[in-house]
Amino acid sequence: MSPFFVMSLLFGLTFGQTASLCAPSEYTIHVEKRECAYCLAINTTICSGFCMTRDSNGKKLLLKSALSQNVCTYKEMLYRTALIPGCPHHTIPYYSYPVAVSCKCGKCNTDYSDCVRERVRTNYCTKPQKLCN
Predict the structure, then answer these.
(1) How many CB atoms lie within 10 A of CB 33?
(2) CB neighbours of 101 closer than 8 A, spacing ≥ 6?
(3) Of 64, 72, 82, 107, which residue has the fewest beta carbons closer than 10 angstroms?
(4) What does 89-130 look like in DSSP terms, one character per residue?
């Protein structure tokens, strides 16, 4: 291998990692239950940002598993639970939600992530709102 090729490869790998801007960012989730009197606005963090990816020109020659693109996803997360106010006694008033601690560029795991871009904005309240931090 020529020194130019090796340097180009190292530069590409280094630049690819530094150009990825995947990090936890602030996000507000609006949660309401039909039986409860209030909507709860919860401030949390989600993984958001740009990940370097390469799209192959030889798609027909590769297996489908080789065509997956990297997305900004959870590296570490924890779950917190909030109490929705104004719920009757027969209703479970708790809501658990994820909090991103750290993020990475990788394959989207549908076990805990929505891997499809939301087309319709549905994150709003239809009832009086309470704020939870």
Answers:
(1) 18
(2) 24, 45, 75, 76, 77, 78
(3) 64
(4) TTS--EEEEEEEEEEEEE---TTT---S---S-----SS-EE
* Amino acid in the structure at residue 71: V
Q: What would the pLDDT profile of 29-63 be if each residue is shown by its tens digit? A: 888 889 999 988 899 999 999 887 766 666 666 66
Domain boundaries 19-131, corresponding CATH code: 2.10.90.10
The string of pLDDT tens digits covering residues 73-107 is 899 999 999 999 899 999 999 999 999 999 999 88
CA distance 111 to 43: 22
Rg (alpha carbons) of the chain, rounded to whole number: 21
Listed by start position, the domains of the chain span 19-131
The token duo for 102 is 């750290």
Tell which residue, 31, 26, 24, 22, has the closest CA to residue 97: 31
Burial 87-103 (b: 16+ CB within 10 A, else e): beeeeebebebbbbeeb
